[in-house]
Amino acid sequence: MIEVKNLNKNFKSKKIIQDLSLTIQENQLTSLIGPNGAGKSTLLNMIGRLCPYDSGQILIDGIEVEGWESTELAKKLSIMKQSNPLGLQISVRELMAFGRFPHSKGRLTKQDQEIIDESLDYLSLSDLQDKKITELSGGQLQRAFIGMVICQDTKYILLDEPLNNLDINHSIGIMNLLRRLVDEKGKTVVVVMHDINYASQFSDRIIAMKDGKLFANDDANDVFQKDIVDDLFDIDVEIIEYNLRKYCIYYGNDCEECLNNTEDVKTFHQATN
Ligand SMILES: Nc1ncnc2c1ncn2[C@@H]1O[C@H](COP(=O)(O)OP(=O)(O)OP(=O)(O)O)[C@@H](O)[C@H]1O
């Protein structure tokens, strides 16, 4: 279980996370949603010990995250950040082998190779395994980074916007894969998601954040209430139900205003062209 207790984080004097307390249950897929700047990535990075916090506690299986020995933490928890370093002249297979490092310390065993093969297969990357990661498309690279995290084979898997750059087919593929990791392998997966309908379709639990504070934390269907989603994103949505899951339909509720501003838009284009 991951427990966050009275967590606070400031960047300079700006409060980014404010007195945040929540629990992430094991063997569930939890989505972190909320508007830009809400503090989702900061929270995920603090749970993954990529960013220190100012006060409060984060407990991973009862031990404060700062107290974990590094290799032991890397066997327990993996994290994929929103942006990953590019420019490394390594192959897809070598990237995925990095994920085995906490287990193999660089000496890959037969079992490590089998796990890499399985992950390549899971992510439909077998054909690309020898290709340099600098030569991949955005979506292929994203899948390779997810593969690296999956190769790490940790109980907790944290992913910051894993669907970035992915087409609909691969997005559904990744979400189905994350579900299988939860349902078949007993993993605990936490994802930062911008597409709230994917979050609704695939999550057990939704944690919504706004302005560094907890806004909602409930079963997916309970968070997907019109008043909650409207207030969370300051928009006007319609909630529909399909196959026992709730989905949001959102219209550009500023459209009338946009139309009224057509002259301003024309003037802007003339000025900039
Ligand atoms: N290293 C940093 N230094 C200063 N401010 C930061 C830093 N990292 C994040 N912030 C600020 O913290 C706030 C929360 O950022 P964070 O990336 O956690 O939000 P988010 O909810 O993940 O947003 P998004 O949906 O846009 O990715 C933002 O106002 C951001 O500008």
Automatic annotation (TrEMBL):
List cellular component terms (GO): plasma membrane
Q: What name goes with this protein?
A: ATP-binding cassette domain-containing protein
Record-annotated ABC transporter domain positions: 2-236
Please name the InterPro entries in this protein's record.
AAA+_ATPase (IPR003593), ABC_transporter-like_ATP-bd (IPR003439), ABC_transporter-like_CS (IPR017871), P-loop_NTPase (IPR027417), Siderophore_ABC-ATPase (IPR051535)
Which keywords, in A-to-Z order, does the entry hold?
A: ATP-binding, Cell membrane, Ion transport, Iron, Iron transport, Membrane, Nucleotide-binding, Transport
| SMART domains xrefs | AAA (SM00382)
What GO molecular function terms would the record report? ATP binding; ATP hydrolysis activity
Keyword Transport belongs to the record: yes
Q: Which CDD domains match?
A: ABC_Iron-Siderophores_B12_Hemin
GO terms for biological process, alphabetical = iron ion transport
Major localisation: membrane
**Entry-linked Pfam families:** ABC_tran
Q: Which PROSITE patterns match?
A: ABC_TRANSPORTER_1, ABC_TRANSPORTER_2
Subcellular location(s) per record: Cell membrane
Specify the protein's topology with respect to the membrane. Answer: Peripheral membrane protein
Organism equals Atopococcus tabaci
